[in-house]
Amino acid sequence: MYNPHDLLRIDVTSVLKRNGDLPLWAQSSIQKTPYVVVRRGVNDRFSIPVGIRGASRSERCAITVSCDHVQGVLTPYELQTSESTRLRLKKAQETFGMLKELLRSMHWGPTGSVGFELASGTQAMNEQSDFDLLIQSQWFSVTEANDLMNQLNKTPMTVDPLIQTENGWFLLREYALGKGVLFKTMTGLELQGDPWRPSH
């Protein structure tokens, strides 16, 4: 089973046969760079929810692919070991280097346009991009979260950490405010006062 934010290298020919009504930009995108990102949602061997990235933020396409059409997978945590020089923007390289030092005791990895660029070798970031990342569940207090955000705010790029728990995801920036979070699960969103113990 694949997890949200994993990047899948796909058999483009097979995916296009299964999804013949894709927008032309989406067809062109995966033909040029055969990677898609796993989305939130229930997935099984025959139906993995994924997203196709285009050249702009408005170009996003949601489809499903079969496990048989997946040729490789890269998780955010695997991408964390990538060389910063795989990123084209100098401030992205500097931010990546600083994060490796600041988060050295945590299990984390880049996502979003950062992860896509590291995995594919195709430039996906621009001067306005955030540096998205995923941090695996590690309990900390609101005070500790606030301290960490203060450190992350010193990087050249805006860093937007998403915390992954056993039950879902939430933004570190929201948690650091101490007012609850919008908790993301595989099937939806819910407001949580304590994201470490989500209600069911």
UniProtKB/TrEMBL annotation:
<dbReference type="InterPro" id="IPR048903">
    <property type="entry name" value="MdcG_N"/>
</dbReference>
<keyword id="KW-0548">Nucleotidyltransferase</keyword>
<dbReference type="InterPro" id="IPR017557">
    <property type="entry name" value="Holo-ACP_synthase"/>
</dbReference>
<dbReference type="Pfam" id="PF20866">
    <property type="entry name" value="MdcG_N"/>
</dbReference>
<dbReference type="GO" id="GO:0016779">
    <property type="term" value="F:nucleotidyltransferase activity"/>
</dbReference>
<dbReference type="Pfam" id="PF10620">
    <property type="entry name" value="MdcG"/>
</dbReference>
<protein>
    <submittedName>
        <fullName>Phosphoribosyl-dephospho-CoA transferase</fullName>
        <ecNumber>2.7.7.66</ecNumber>
    </submittedName>
</protein>
<feature type="domain" description="Phosphoribosyl-dephospho-CoA transferase MdcG N-terminal">
    <location>
        <begin position="4"/>
        <end position="76"/>
    </location>
</feature>
<dbReference type="InterPro" id="IPR049180">
    <property type="entry name" value="MdcG_C"/>
</dbReference>
<keyword id="KW-0808">Transferase</keyword>
<feature type="domain" description="Phosphoribosyl-dephospho-CoA transferase MdcG C-terminal">
    <location>
        <begin position="92"/>
        <end position="194"/>
    </location>
</feature>
